[in-house]
Amino acid sequence: FKNYHKWKKECPEITGNLHPPSILSLLQTHYIGILKERDPSGSRVVFYRIAQWDPQIFTAYDLFRVSIMLSELIIREPDTQRNGVKTIFDLQGWKFAHAFQITPAVIRKIAFVLTDGFPLKVRGIHLIREPLIFYHVFNLIKHFLSEKVKARIHLHGNNFTHGLQRHFPASLLPEEYNGEAGPFEEFSKEPLSPKETINSIKKNYRCFLMLSII
């Protein structure tokens, strides 16, 4: 927690503008979702879809803010405090316009959060449908990561079904990813999904504003 509060003070470009109304539209694109059930190890699973990120509208810092705010919400769950979170990134649609936003400054901030800069433990990072132009950014990010974090990164490529289901059962995954949990948009009807998160953010608006000065 000490590292996280220090990081917030040192990154005003992110934490100094945690105003929910400014990022609700990003949540409504279904860029991010939290799967209905936990994985077999008890971790929360957060799913990101890069194709829903329009870099002409949203900056990398906007995405960072959404992730931080969601993390602030789910870390309240005792099971998540114990078992952490795992992430799945669908990188289909990654373009040069996305890559240009991942500056060295952004990379360092990402690396800090992943390496004990946030009290929510990241137990696994899964990348699917990653295009060749993504690997340049990926290699830059890896340079700043600890060996422990690197060991938790899994690259599944375009033929991701078998590899992904070794970690997450089909019953947990959306049907767009050869799963059985229904379409991705249905997650907006579930607890801690985009729709519920929007309601939570609105309800806790004053709390999130205080994050800037804690």
Blueprint (SSEs and pairs):
Elements: H1 2-10, H2 12-15, H3 24-27, E1 32-34, E2 44-49, H4 60-74, H5 78-83, E3 85-90, H6 96-99, H7 104-117, E4 122-128, H8 135-143, H9 147-150, E5 153-157, H10 161-165, H11 194-203, H12 205-210
Parallel strand pairs: 2-3, 3-4, 4-5
Antiparallel strand pairs: 1-2
Note the overall shape.
globular
Average pLDDT confidence is 81
Distance between the termini: 12 Å
Structural class by secondary-structure content: alpha/beta
Q: What order do the helices and strands follow?
A: HHHEEHHEHHEHHEHHH
Q: How many DSSP helices?
A: 12
Rg, alpha carbons: 16 Å
Give the uncertain stretches in residue-range form. Answer: 188-195, 205-214
The number of distinct β-strands equals: 5
Relative strand content: 5-15%
User: What is the helix content?
Assistant: 40-55%
Spatial strand sequence of the major β-sheet: 1-2-3-4-5
GO biological process, one term: vitamin transport
GO cellular component, one term: membrane
Protein name: Alpha tocopherol transfer protein
GO molecular function, one term: lipid transfer activity
